[in-house]
Amino acid sequence: MTTWSQFTEEAPTISALFLRRHQATGNLCMLGTVRADGSPRISPIEPMVFENMLVLVGMPKTRKFDDLARDPRFCLHTATVDTNVSDGDAKLFGRVSDLHDAAVHARFAQMLFDESGMDIRGEKFDHFYVAELTGASTVEVEGDHLNITVWKPGAGEWVVRKE
Question: Which stretches make up the Pyridoxamine 5'-phosphate oxidase N-terminal domain (predicted)?
């Protein structure tokens, strides 16, 4: 599986579009997880790139994190309200691992405090999920067709044009 920093090197087009759409929505994305019964769950999340890791953290004891604890597979989709997808959209696929490193947690909490004033410094994290990517894609509208850029680890990016 691929770390965030490896992904940005192998998939510069997709990672740039993901970051642009991520920032345009105030960091809001939609997270797809697998429920205990095997059905899908879609939840809002505000993932962050921190120290070259894509981090999926949030309010503790939520169902989405229960899902990830049981089955680490996920899909992350940039949020959009534009039905024409004029600024494109991106999807990332992968698995999370739970990083148990108190020093990283402390630096993350300090960064949150510095950037937003949210003070969780000194609190224990239930989970600190770091994404390991297994695939990604974007959709961009260009005139009368779609360009779908696809990435798989080690294979680089390629474009599928849909008329």
Answer: 27-108
